[in-house]
């Protein structure tokens, strides 16, 4: 019943047949003050033929060579059927309604209309400008592919297809945005990815009712599980090799048109500390680097607060010799430790922000001015103790080791409430903060999957993918916590087969 | 009230986590002072008392599991109503809830007192109460998944404290344990009874059991959990007896915390401060599980929303803990909880089991006679 009604309205919407002049009036009426809209009328065997397109959206030389030339040189009359049949272009289609015509016009199709015909023919001859592939800027790696996504969705899809040459790879297309729609692609392996996850992701994107989508990072914020938390719940990456690896492990990637970053879901807290480089390194070195990052994060969150707590309340914690040096250097400082620490943390944050906003050449100067000169001057002026400079620099440095820029920023922001707690309640305050963070992390989910897996819910078999790495013959399983359809990557018995001496 | 608990599939937990639940709820604040209480009763043979206590608890657990397994998917509140009828069952359920309330309160007050004694002598207990209760509320609102998660992660994150005992352990004087087997049976049993407060908490099994997904595998984690906490108390007591002289230990209220005073690192001088802060990770799971027991119990017995109970009870606790600040009141509270808890936790299951069996037989007979007639 519904379907028949829809078809009826569809037919009613058809604006054809009409004369070419009427059509010109109708379409140009929609494009007022738009000088790039080209509408040309040709006379061919006594029949008027209209050809129209938006000039910069279309490859004009192709229009001339492959459309206009055959069109005008043929002996005999044209109809829409014969155009589709005889013009040597393969992307032809017919349309009837005004709405679709306008839509197609915008994405760079060329329309051909023979007067008083019942439908209009269009060809995709779009021209899309895009920049060349370049090196990754935000997630730099030493080893592995040195290529980053660009703003062109087609280029990005092309890279992914070449990375995973499998018929299992699905690049599902969705449109998001009511006023100006934008193409979104869900990428997954249909024989591996968990179906519930794919459905959830598809549902969340489909349910979006927004006027327009700015970027993949905003899409990420729209579809995240919790919008109140400070932690990112999906991984945003510009590395195609990371996407390829993650997708082949059974997770889902989402690409957005005009966005050079892909979203990876579901993600765990630990995936934000994994670099693809861990995979390219030997397993023991990779494990070392990964553990190093976890320690760095802990230091980054806890070190400055500990300094504040110890110097404000618990002098007993500091060994005697260090206490003397600390006392000497703090003797001239007029502020309580909490103010001292916050000033310095703020200074570092300012330097980072200024360095990020300025052009690269100036940015370096800012680093030197800030790091060396101001740091030195602040201590000499007696505004902070020299030990605090070390502490703050160490924790700032640690926070930059996170492979994900989003997570690094989160970690740096968490530090401020921790410093305040330490200033108010000493070591008990720090403990309160840590407990709160842990409970908070336990509560969180990413695409409905626990954020802290495989630590909780505890999965022994997954630890070697997250906390550390093992040699390849132990990594024969995919990440079990995300329930992939196909758990095994390769045969275990072949992988762990051991030979006797001299065999 | 339904005797059996119906739960959604996704709310169930693996039996594996019972181990962590049992250990974290048993090892709370009690262990901080346990060695002294045991030592006063059983002297150098205190370690035997702990083993006796462990064996006895294993028996209690065996009985508890028998009780629970005689039903399909019931908790203690449902079982009591089934056995004793609606009124008496509800009263008994209320006793359980009240017992949980007092246990929670004693843990809260003790931890606040320890912070006051060791770190901040002048901090207001009201303020500390707010902090702890906030964390408790925050995790309970997250539901059973978060509660179990807290007990699991905090278990892992606080167990490194055990390794710090190596320092006092190296300085133990083994003559403190001689002569061996000097204490009489009565003294040993008294010593075992002195552990009752420390070992309390495993009765949470009565409430959380319906949540277990694979009940057939539940036995091992339960027994092993009790064994693990007994082992921790055992280690703490043995090290305390070996490290402190008998005269010292008799007067040391928080002997386990004092053990950590000797631990120093090149970068941290007094480690006991860190230990007391870290103890929040030991006390919190206990508090959270007890509070969950309270809210769950009230919901089962009186059908009141868990959130309502949670907020009301928390406010009451908050005011309670800011008023009770005298040490002797706290000690009294603990010993009262221990006395009542002893009967409720350690003795009551042995009475309950035969009643259940008799009632079951009786019901079967009735059914058969009903069929015949």
Architecture overview:
The complex is a heterodimer of chains A (503) and B (373). With 503 residues, chain A is α+β, with helices and mostly antiparallel strands. Helices cover 48% and strands 12% of the residues of chain A. Chain A contains 18 helices and 12 strands. In chain A, the strands form 3 sheets. A 5-stranded antiparallel beta sheet of chain A has the order 1-2-4-5-3, sandwiched between helices. Chain A has a 5-stranded antiparallel beta sheet with strand order 6-7-9-10-8, with helices on both faces. Chain A has a two-stranded antiparallel sheet with strand order 11-12. In chain A, β4 and β5 form a beta hairpin. Chain A starts with a helix and ends in an 8-residue tail after the last helix. The N terminus of chain A is likely disordered. Chain B has a single domain, classed as Up-down Bundle (Amino acid/polyamine transporter I), CATH 1.20.1740.10. At the A-B interface, α16 of A face α5, α6, α14 and α15 of B.
How is this structure best summarized?
Chain A is an alpha+beta fold and 503 residues long.
Uncertain runs of chain B are none
Oligomer: heterodimer
Class by SSE composition of chain B: mainly alpha
Give the H and E element order of chain B. Answer: HHHHHHHHHHHHHHHHH
On the 0 to 100 scale, the average pLDDT of chain A is 87
Round the Cα radius of gyration of chain B to an integer and report it. Answer: 21 Å
Features:
A: 503 residues, alpha+beta, 3 domains, 5-stranded antiparallel sheet, 18 helices, elongated, disordered N terminus, B: 373 residues, mainly alpha, Amino acid/polyamine transporter I, 17 helices, 74% helix
């Amino acid at each position: 019943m519904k379907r028949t009604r829809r078809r009826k309205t569809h037919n009613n919407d058809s604006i054809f047949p009409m004369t070419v002049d009427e059509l010109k009036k109708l379409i140009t009426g929609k494009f007022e003050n738009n000088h790039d809209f080209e509408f040309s009328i040709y006379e061919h065997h006594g029949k008027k033929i209209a050809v129209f397109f938006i000039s910069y959206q279309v490859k004009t030389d192709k229009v001339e060579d492959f459309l206009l030339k055959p069109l005008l040189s043929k002996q005999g009359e044209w109809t829409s059927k014969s155009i589709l049949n005889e013009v040597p272009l393969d992307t032809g289609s017919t349309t009837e309604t005004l709405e679709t015509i306008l839509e197609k016009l915008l994405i760079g199709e060329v329309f051909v209309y023979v007067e008083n015909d019942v439908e209009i023919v269009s060809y995709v001859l779009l021209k899309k400008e895009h920049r060349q592939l370049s090196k990754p800027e935000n997630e730099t790696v030493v080893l592995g592919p040195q290529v980053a996504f660009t703003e062109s969705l087609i280029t990005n899809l092309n890279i992914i297809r070449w990375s995973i040459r499998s018929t299992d790879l699905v690049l599902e297309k969705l449109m998001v945005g009511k006023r100006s729609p934008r193409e979104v692609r869900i990428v997954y392996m249909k024989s591996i990815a968990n179906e519930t996850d794919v459905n959830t992701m598809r549902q969340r994107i489909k349910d979006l009712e927004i006027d327009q989508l700015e970027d993949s990072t905003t899409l990420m914020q729209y579809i995240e599980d919790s919008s109140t938390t400070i932690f990112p719940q999906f991984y945003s990456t510009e590395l195609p090799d990371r996407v390829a690896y993650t997708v082949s492990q059974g997770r889902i990637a989402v690409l957005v048109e005009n966005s050079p970053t892909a979203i990876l879901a579901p993600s765990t807290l630990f995936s934000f500390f994994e670099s693809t480089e861990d995979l390219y390194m030997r397993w023991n070195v990779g494990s070392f680097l990964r553990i190093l990052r976890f320690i760095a994060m802990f230091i980054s969150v806890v070190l400055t607060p500990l300094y504040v707590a110890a110097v404000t309340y618990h002098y007993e914690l500091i060994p005697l010799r260090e206490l003397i040096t600390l006392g000497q250097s703090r003797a001239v400082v007029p502020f309580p430790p909490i103010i001292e620490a916050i000033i310095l943390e703020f200074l570092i944050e300012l330097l980072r922000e200024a360095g990020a906003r300025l052009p690269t050449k100036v940015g370096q100067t800012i680093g030197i001015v800030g790091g060396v000169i101001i740091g030195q001057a602040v201590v000499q002026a007696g505004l902070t103790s020299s030990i605090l400079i070390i502490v703050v620099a160490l924790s700032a440095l640690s926070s930059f080791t996170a492979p994900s820029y989003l997570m690094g920023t989160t970690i740096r922001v968490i530090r401020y409430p921790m410093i305040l707690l330490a200033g108010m309640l000493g070591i008990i305050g720090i403990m309160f903060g840590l407990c709160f963070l842990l409970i908070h992390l336990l509560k969180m989910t990413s695409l409905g999957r626990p954020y802290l897996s495989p630590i909780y819910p505890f999965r022994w078999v997954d630890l070697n993918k997250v906390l550390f790495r093992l040699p390849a013959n132990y990594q024969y399983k995919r990440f079990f916590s995300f329930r992939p359809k196909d758990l095994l990557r390769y045969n275990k018995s072949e992988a762990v087969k051991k030979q006797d001496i001299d065999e | 009230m339904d005797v059996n608990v119906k739960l959604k599939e996704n709310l169930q937990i693996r039996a594996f986590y019972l181990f962590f639940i049992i250990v974290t709820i048993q090892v709370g604040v009690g262990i901080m002072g346990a060695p002294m209480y045991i030592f006063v009763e059983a002297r150098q043979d205190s370690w035997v008392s702990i083993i006796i206590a462990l064996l006895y608890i294993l028996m209690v657990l065996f009985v508890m599991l028998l009780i629970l397994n005689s039903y399909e998917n019931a908790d203690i509140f449902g079982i009591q109503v089934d056995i004793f009828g609606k009124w008496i069952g509800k009263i008994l359920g209320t006793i359980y809830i009240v017992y949980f309330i007092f246990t929670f309160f004693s843990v809260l007050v003790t931890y606040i007192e320890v912070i006051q004694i060791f770190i901040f002598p002048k901090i207001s207990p009201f303020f500390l109460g707010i902090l702890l209760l906030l964390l408790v509320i925050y995790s309970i609102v997250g539901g059973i998944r978060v509660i179990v998660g807290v007990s699991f992660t905090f278990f892992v994150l606080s167990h490194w404290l055990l390794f710090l005992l190596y320092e006092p352990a190296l300085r133990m004087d083994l003559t403190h344990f001689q002569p061996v087997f000097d204490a009489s049976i009565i003294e040993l049993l008294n010593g075992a009874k002195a552990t009752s407060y420390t070992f309390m908490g495993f009765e949470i099994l009565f409430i959380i059991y319906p949540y277990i997904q694979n009940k057939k595998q539940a036995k091992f984690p339960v027994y092993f959990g009790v064994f693990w906490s007994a082992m921790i108390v055992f280690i703490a007591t043995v090290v305390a007896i070996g490290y402190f002289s008998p005269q010292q230990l008799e007067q040391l209220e928080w002997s386990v915390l004092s053990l950590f005073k000797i631990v120093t690192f090149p970068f941290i001088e007094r480690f006991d401060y860190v230990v007391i802060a870290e103890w929040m990770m030991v006390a919190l799971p206990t508090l959270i599980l007890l509070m969950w027991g309270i809210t769950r119990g009230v919901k089962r017995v009186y059908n009141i929303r868990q959130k309502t109970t949670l907020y009301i009870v928390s406010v009451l606790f908050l005011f309670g803990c800011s008023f009770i600040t005298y040490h002797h009141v706290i000690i009294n509270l603990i010993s009262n909880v221990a006395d009542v808890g002893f009967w409720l936790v350690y003795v009551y299951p042995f009475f309950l089991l035969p009643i259940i069996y008799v009632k079951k037989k009786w019901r079967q007979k009735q059914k058969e006679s009903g069929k015949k007639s």
